[in-house]
Structures are given as C-alpha cells and as structure tokens.
Design a protein that fits this description.
By secondary structure, this protein is an alpha/beta fold. It contains two helices and six strands, in the order E-H-E-E-H-E-E-E. Strands 2-1-3-4 form a four-stranded mixed sheet, covered by helices on one side. A two-stranded antiparallel sheet has the order 5-6. It starts with a strand and ends in a 12-residue tail after the last strand.
Length: 129
C-alpha cells in the first residue's frame, strides 16, 4: 500500500495535478514494483497565507508524503526518491530544489483497508522489494 499526499500552493497544484499524479505513480510503480492499477493520491492545495516556505523555494514548492507498509529495502526507498525527483522534473518542470519527500513506513497491522487490518489482506504484490 502506498498512500500519497501532495501539498503545494493551490495555483501550482491545480496547474500540475495531472502530470504530477502521473509522475508520482510512475515512480512508485517502477521503484517499488507496485501494481499499476493502485493509485491513491490526495492533493492539498493551499492559499499563500496557509503555505509558508523558505525564500530559496519558488511558488512551485511541493511537499510529497508517502505512507507505506513497512518492509521495503533502503535501496528501493532511495530509488523511489530519485525517481520522484527525475520524473516530476521531466513531467512538470518542477526543480528538485522545490520538492521535498517524506516516506513513512508503518506495520501492516496499523492499517485498516476494506474492512480488514492490513496484515489480514491478501496483497497482489510484494512489499519486500
């Protein structure tokens, strides 16, 4: 499971939403061997007074938070982060300087999905990549 929250200025999120979602999903599918039909993205567009950031960032500044089942290797997580930087820059023109990424892993038992806990689900993909 990979749940993704994308934060940014509303104007930037609205402008890049389709390409940003495609770039993020492509990165997750490739780096984590994730099923292509599983896409869980939430876009949170904020007004300028709600989204404060350092002066060395632009109005394209974007924060990406990915919640994952635990079990991915360090190599897989680094591959995901690198793919996100590359794919987002290519698809949206957003510089890696304007992208911050946090991966948060939690035990499957901490998830509730389709009426079950995550450790009770039959997944159609591997987590330990």
């Amino acid at each position: 499971m990979a749940q993704v929250k994308i934060y940014g200025l509303r104007s930037s999120i609205d402008h890049h939403r389709i390409q940003l979602s495609a770039a993020i999903h492509q990165s997750i599918v490739e780096a984590l061997s994730y099923p292509p039909d599983k896409r869980f993205h939430r876009f949170i567009g904020l007004a300028p007074e709600e989204f404060l950031f350092p002066s060395d960032r632009t109005t394209s500044y974007t924060i990406i938070e990915v919640s994952l089942f635990e079990g991915r290797s360090v190599g897989a997580k680094k591959s995901l982060i690198r793919a996100l930087y590359t794919n987002i820059e290519q698809a949206c023109g957003i510089s890696p300087q304007d992208i911050e990424i946090t991966l948060t892993e939690t035990p499957k038992s901490n998830w509730g999905i389709r009426g079950k806990t995550g450790d009770e689900l039959a997944l159609g993909y591997k987590v330990d990549v």
